[in-house]
Amino acid sequence: MFYETAENAHGLRHDPFKAIVAPRPIGWIGTKAADGRHNLAPYSFFNAVSDRPKLVMFSSSGHKDSVTNIEETGVFTCSLAGRHLAEAMNASSAAVPRCVDEFALAGLTPVAGRLVDAPYVGEAHAVLECRMTQAFRPVDINGRESDNWVVFGQVVGIHISPEILRDGMIDMGVARPLGRMGYMDYCDGGAEVFAMMRPKAG
C-alpha cells in the first residue's frame, strides 16, 4: 500500500507513522520550575544526536510543563526508563495540573542533580544531566510552525549504577531500556541483545 501524508488516507484503524519509526527511546525528563515545583514526564520523541559534544533532544507535542520549566531554568535531567520502572514511567505520563508532582504520583524518589538544578529518578539505572542549548518550534515544508517544541540539551554529567556494568560496559540485558513502539505498545530493549561488528573497509 501507499498513501500521501497530506490527506493521511491510509484506511487503517490508526495512523501507522509512529509504528514505523520504532522502537523509539524514551526521554524521561525531569525538571524544576522557577518556584521549585518538580515535574517528570516521558517523551518518546527523544534521542541522542551527537557525542562530541554530547547532545540529546526531545520533542513535546504542545508547550507542556517540561518545556516551560526548561525555558525558565535552562536545565533538565533524563533518567533511563528501564523495564523495572515501566509502570512508574507510565504513571508519570498522566495529564495532571501543573501543581502535581509526578515523582510523588508515580512513587519515585526525586534526587537533585549534581551539576544542574533539576531532579532525576533515584531508582533509574542511568541519568543524564543536561543544559539546554536550543528550544524552538520546527516548521513544515511550507514554513508553518508546528504545534511541537523541540529542546536540545548538552549532557554535562552522567550517573551510572554499578548494577548494570559488566566488564566495563553497560549490559543491556540488565539495564533493559524501554522503547516506545506504535499505538500503546512498548518493547524491552534488553530482551534479545546481539552484537555485530562493522565490515572492514576495502
Task: Describe the fold and architecture.
The chain has 202 residues and is mainly β. Helix content is 13%, strand content 36%. The protein has 5 helices and 14 strands. The chain has helices spanning 17-20, 65-73, 86-91, 102-105, 172-175, and strands spanning 24-25, 27-32, 38-43, 46-51, 54-61, 75-79, 110-112, 119-121, 126-136, 148-160, 165-166, 169-170, 178-180, 186-188. The strands form 4 sheets. A 7-stranded antiparallel β-sheet has the order 3-2-6-9-10-5-4, with helices on one face. Strands 1-13-14 form a 3-stranded antiparallel β-sheet, with no helix packed on it. Strands 7-8 form a two-stranded antiparallel sheet. It starts with 16 loop residues before the first helix and ends in a 14-residue tail after the last strand.
Provide key terms for this protein.
14 strands, 3-stranded antiparallel beta sheet, 7-stranded antiparallel beta sheet, single chain, mainly beta, 5 helices
Quick overview of this protein structure:
The protein has about 200 residues and is mostly beta strands. The protein contains five helices and 14 strands. Strands 3-2-6-9-10-5-4 form a seven-stranded antiparallel beta sheet, covered by helices on one side. It has a three-stranded antiparallel beta sheet with strand order 1-13-14, with no helix packed on it. A two-stranded antiparallel ribbon has the order 7-8.
Strand content bin: 35-45%
Rg, rounded, reads 18 Å
Measured distance between first and last alpha carbons = 38 Å
SSE string: HEEEEEHEHHEEEEEEHEE
* Strand order, sheet with most strands: 3-2-6-9-10-5-4
Q: How many strand elements?
A: 14
User: Which geometry do the CA atoms define?
Assistant: globular
Number of helices: 5
Structure class: mainly beta
The main sheet comes to:
7 strands, antiparallel
Overall mean confidence score, pLDDT: 96
Helix content: 10-25%
Low-confidence stretches: none
